[in-house]
Amino acid sequence: MSAVWTDNEVTPLDQEPAKKPKIELETHKLEKRLCRQVGQAIMDFNMIEEGDRVMVCVSGGKDSYGMLDILLKLQARAPINFELIAVNLDQKQPGFPDHILPEYLKQLGVPFHIETQDTYSIVKKVIPEGKTMCSLCSRLRRGILYRVADELKITKIALGHHRDDMLQTFFLNMFFAGKLKGMPPKLVSDDGGHIVIRPLANVAEKDLIRWAAHRQFPIIPCSLCGSQENLQRKQIGNMLRDWEKQYPGRIESMFTALQNVVPSHLMDTKRHNFRDVKTTGVPCADGDKVFDEEEFPVASLPSLQMVSIQV
Ligand code: SF4
């Protein structure tokens, strides 16, 4: 079953690499990687199940176009049956080209729904001139999408956040909210009524940029309303990119860390029972090393070097 989701089969393109132009091979590899990473996330977090009606939220940005594109490819060969319904919310931003998405989705042949709600006027009325509008705008959008999900009898809401969004959220929470908390691949919505999934959880943003360019998605910018981008998120994004440039492989390592939490080595008394710690008499590799120098073998991450820290 897993092989069908993640597509490990050999194709004619794989068999004759020398005969194919480099760019075509690279694109083919990118497509395989995207399908594999999305398929893996779907399996690891049990995101999509038999009979699901998945609402694919499409904004007109590169990420949501990419998500829909890859989900359609996976749907065609998935070991289970599920439906994809693309949903776009037209918020009546000035200059929003409302013909682009319906035309694109029609041509794709995917069932879709365009919900038109003028949240732009509300946000403009409430938020003072010059202040960022994104927070209220997205709160209104969320409420509308939940209602639409109910009306369309949706069982999963799929959002186009990717690996870099998730890491940025992790650092935003750490730096500005004092929490070790990221953006979950699958969680119940804040109103308790929906399951939200993020099938691009394993996908790097740079791959989505390349895929969007290759597929020539008709991108609609989100900033039509003239609102400022979230400055803190932008700063964190720049910080992560700088780190990656200086220490290649660091993003991959941090992303792996999100999947390897060791509560006994943190300080949250709600996650680990420090009060009742007792000796076991049994050696444990993860036990405290007292004054020993800690080593960090990173054989599974070839781009990183061995690091040791004096404690
Ligand atoms: S950029 Fe504009 S449309 Fe996009 S979330 Fe912010 S306020 Fe809303």
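^ iron/sulfur cluster complex. The longest strand covers residues 83-90. The CA atoms of residues 74 and 107 lie 19 Å apart.
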